[in-house]
């Protein structure tokens, strides 16, 4: 499954999910759709998913997740990127290109107002669980190799001035 098809499946799931920001609902629908596909297609979806995770492994996006979620461990960053994938291609690609663009999303603004957080851990296992449901077996070891890029030097995410300089719109929502 190439990226184009993967994003189509995510968008179809988003259209059927109970709410537009419901990452868990989107993940469940994607998993169910994949479980009805041939095993090779499920494995290809796993590769595509983790390629997207690698593409989104950047310090600026991690800083955005840190602001939005009130802190962000390495696992938390994975779950945030799972949520981001569940938001669809346009939001994902926009956030990877400009993490500060997340400040435009109503769900992010709601988090700033009520202290919520964004995560989509279930999205990270959609292909794994679909393969298990379809075949009764785990995805074979070594099928997917994640190649995270080297991170640029990290700045202090607790430095409000630096965060405001790098992510001014998000900092305006979460630091004031």
Could you characterize the architecture of this molecule?
The longest helix is centred in the first third of the chain and has 17 residues. It is built from 10 helices and no strands. α2 crosses α5. With 176 residues, the chain is an all-alpha fold. The termini are far apart.
**Beta fraction:** under 5%
The tally of helices reads 10
**Envelope shape:** globular
What's the Cα radius of gyration? 16 Å
Mean pLDDT across all residues, rounded?
Answer: 94
Estimated helix fraction: 55-70%
SS class: mainly alpha
Which regions have little confidence, pLDDT < 50, spanning 5+ residues? Answer: none
Reported for the largest beta sheet, the result is: none
Count of β-strands? 0
Order of helices and strands: HHHHHHHHHH
End-to-end separation in angstroms reads 43 Å
Relevant terms:
single chain; 176 residues; mainly alpha
Write the SSE topology.
Layout: H1 3-16, H2 23-35, H3 39-55, H4 59-69, H5 74-86, H6 89-97, H7 106-114, H8 126-135, H9 160-166, H10 168-174
Quickly describe the structure.
With 176 residues, this protein is mostly helical.
């Amino acid at each position: 499954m190439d990226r184009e098809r993967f994003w189509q499946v995510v968008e179809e799931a988003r259209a059927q999910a109970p709410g537009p920001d419901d990452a868990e609902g989107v993940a469940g629908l994607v998993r169910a759709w994949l479980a009805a596909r041939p095993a090779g297609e499920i494995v290809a979806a796993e590769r595509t998913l983790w390629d997207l995770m690698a593409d989104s492994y950047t310090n600026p996006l991690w800083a955005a997740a840190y602001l939005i979620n009130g802190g962000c461990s390495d696992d938390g960053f994975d779950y945030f990127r799972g949520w981001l994938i569940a938001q669809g291609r346009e939001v994902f690609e926009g956030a990877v290109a400009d993490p500060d663009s997340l400040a435009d999303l109503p769900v992010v603004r709601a988090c700033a107002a009520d202290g919520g957080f964004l995560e989509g851990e279930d999205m990270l296992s959609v292909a794994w669980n679909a393969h298990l449901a379809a075949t009764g077996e785990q995805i074979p070891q070594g099928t997917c190799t994640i190649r995270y890029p080297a991170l640029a030097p990290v700045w202090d995410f607790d430095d409000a001035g630096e965060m405001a300089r790098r992510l001014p719109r998000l900092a305006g929502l979460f630091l004031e």
